Amino acid sequence: MHRYEEQNSEQTLAEGLSEYYRENANLVPRSKLSAEASEFFRCHDTAHVVFGCDISLNDEAMVKIYSIFGTSGGFGILKGYRLHESGEIYRKLSIVEVVKTAFAAVVLIPRTMLKCRSQRGRWPWNQFDDQLSVPLKKLREEYGVRVAHLNHPPP
């Protein structure tokens, strides 16, 4: 488990993002992304950190639900998943991974939607630069975010 995935992580958002990028160095380099894809993935990757998700396919599914129902992006974020760069990622998935995640989604989707519903506010999808120096613990308290792998309410 990464430090940014802990409900009460003392890391700042910027530190959590640094850990996320360090641990996932195999992600598509920003220099190879279109401007639109770069902005989408900046927000998407931040959602990974705020909601405490890794890059497993199950967690990617949860990030999508968190992004729709737990951020100010709403259903508008779906256009980012239709970008050419997103399609390249999808083509690398194995059918076995997809099928396993489809079965897990029966539980993951409703659980994640309930967590979003219990939030006190929606995370700002693309306007969070002023919060990069704020500890994740404080951000999660402010927005009422329960990280992906926490099944009980935070203390």
Structure description:
This protein is mainly alpha-helical. The chain has one domain. 52% of the residues lie in helices and 0% in strands. It contains 6 helices and no strands. It has helices at residues 13-23, 35-50, 57-70, 84-91, 95-117, 136-143. It is globular and about 40 Å long. The two termini are 20 Å apart. The mean pLDDT is 92.
Q: What's the helix and strand layout?
A:
Layout: H1 13-23, H2 35-50, H3 57-70, H4 84-91, H5 95-117, H6 136-143
Helix pairs in contact: 1-2, 3-5
Keywords:
single chain; 155 residues; mainly alpha; 6 helices; 52% helix; globular
Quick structural gist:
This protein is mainly alpha-helical and 155 residues long. Helices cover 52% and strands 0% of the residues. Helix 1 (13-23) crosses helix 2 (35-50).
Helical coverage, percent range:
40-55%
How is the biggest beta sheet arranged?
none
Total helices: the number is 6
User: How many distinct domains?
Assistant: 1
Uncertain runs are none
The coarse silhouette is globular
Task: Estimate the mean pLDDT confidence.
Answer: 92
Cα Rg = 15 Å
Strand composition percent: under 5%
Would you count the extended β strands for me?
0
Structural class comes to mainly alpha
First-to-last CA distance = 20 Å
The arrangement of helices and strands along the chain is: HHHHHH
